[in-house]
Structure formats: C-alpha cells, structure tokens
Amino acid sequence: GEASAFVLVSYAGVAKVAAIGGEIKNPGKNLPGGIMTSLGIGAVLYAVLVATMVAVIPHEAFFDSNGHAIEDPVRAFAEVVGGSDMAIFAAVVAILTMTSMSLAGILAASRYLFAMSRDNLLPDLFEDVHPRYETPHVAIIVTGVAMAIALLTIDVHQVAEYASGFQIMVYVLMSMSVLVLRKATPSHAWYQPEYNAPLRPFLQWFGIISGSLLLYFMGMEAIIGAVTAAIVGLLIYQGYGKKHQSHKISPWETFRMMSSDPRRAESRRRASAFFAADTWGNKLLTLRQFMSCVDALGLEYGDTDNLRDYFHAADEDGDGLIHLEQYLMALETMASDEG
Predict the structure, then answer these.
(1) What average pLDDT does range 150-178 have in this prediction?
(2) For the whole model, what pTM was predicted?
C-alpha cells in the first residue's frame, strides 16, 4: 500500500501543468492534451527504467543490510553497471533534476496563490505582477521562502511524507470538486468548462475512494500532512476568503441545496438568472432580457413567439417590463405547460 502511494506521488508533476492554465493558449484543448501527454511519457519512462534496473542487477542491490529499500536505487544501479564514476554522474544528474523539479514546484505553487488572490480568496498582494518580468513575484518569493523553511527545519524524509499526503489529498479534492462544480454549473454562469472528464461520476468516485485508501496506507505522517494542509486552507478561507469572495453563493452551497432541497435550489437559480440579466439594475426585465434568462437557464420553450406570449402574459400592466414575481410566474407557467 505504501509503495503504491509513493508511486502515485511520482506522477504528481502532471497536476503542475494545470496550475499555469491561465497562461496557456486555448487551455480547453491544450491543457488536457498536455496533462495526458506528460502522463503517458512519464509512465513509459518509469516503466522502462524500472524494468531495466530489475532485469540487469539482482534485486538484493536495492536493499540495505537491514532489509529496507534504499532511497537512491538509480545511483545503486549506475554503480553496479558502470562503477563509482557512473554512480557519481547519476547522483549529479539526480541533483540537477531535483533542482529543476523544485523550480517547477515553485512555479506551480505560486500560481495557486496568484489565482486565489485574483478570486479575492487571498490578499491583493499576491496578485501583484512584476513590471519587468511579468510574473507574480510576491507569490513566487513567498512560496520559495516557505519551501526553504520547510526543508531547513523538517527532516527531508518527513517532508516527503507530508508532501505525499498533501498531494494525494489534492487529487481527492480535485475529484470532489468536479462532482460539485458539474452539478452546480447551471446556477453559476461563470463556470463554463470546455473539457468534460470521462466516465463521470464513476472516475471521480474512484479517485476519492482510492486516494483516501492510499492516505491510510501511507501512515500517520502523510495523514498529518494532508489534514494540516486542509485545516490551514479552511482557516484562511474562513478568516479572509469568505469575507471577500466574488461569488456570494458558492458552488458547494448550491450543491448542498440541490441535494437536500431541489425546488429551493431551482428557485434560487432562476432568481440568480433574473438579477444577472437585469443589467439596468432596476429589478425589471425587458422581453430581450427575459429571453436571455430563459436561454441561460436552458429551458425549452419551442419558438420565439411562444416565449413572447409567456412574457406578455406575465406583463400585467403592459408596460413591456416584468418584475421578479412576474418573471418567476412566467417560468412556472412554462414548466407546467411543458409537463
């Protein structure tokens, strides 16, 4: 179980591609393609390397005198095959690779802070972009300093355990987020994904269950890392993000309401569409605005003439404007006629 968890963490880099989605051209197409391509290449390279190592040297070389797996199997493989010089070369390559991975980690983590700041979930400071380099320099500096402090004050093996648990928790939360957002999409026009995850919701439930099991198998340190990260995130949201978020009604609140009280959720969805279409801010809708509401809600109404009839039937005083109650009544009439 623990070995499986660490193998999963080896592929954690694929999630870093999504972190810079805001800087990618045509992300709806290129982002899924980049993730799938990098995942496929990484899987092939890992499989070929491991198969070669196991086939060339005896498996005893990958264990120490106490029977525990060594932490530098590639160096051990290089030493058996090419001697000490080859082992030193492999170690240098590994150090350079880890340095590159660290920079990629800083790049990805800083973009999370940057994106959260743009959504008013963190202070505006993290949204600042350097005038010359056009990068979120404050977020990058904070991320780099935090990573350095963790490496200097915590045992490296523990850092790996904590990070592994955190990464698996991220995958679990990603799967949960897909389920919540896709169900709440009709009530949140700002969420318009271009890519549809396959086998939904079975694939997401598999990710949630398998990720939770992997956390359990990895032991207490990984669980502590995951829980600590979740608590810190929750405290930040409750202390700052919730008070400054742009969307007063969160997708999670919509999801809960749709699960517990579908009629109330639908009523609120319709009301949200009304206020979104009320561009004049006078709590009244014209025929054109009413039609845009119906389109946004995805309601079936036949042809345009039918929609005009519903509008004029609700417009009791004939002034070409309807208020919220008349609008809701028109939608109810449409729903009953369709039923």
Answers:
(1) 81
(2) 0.71
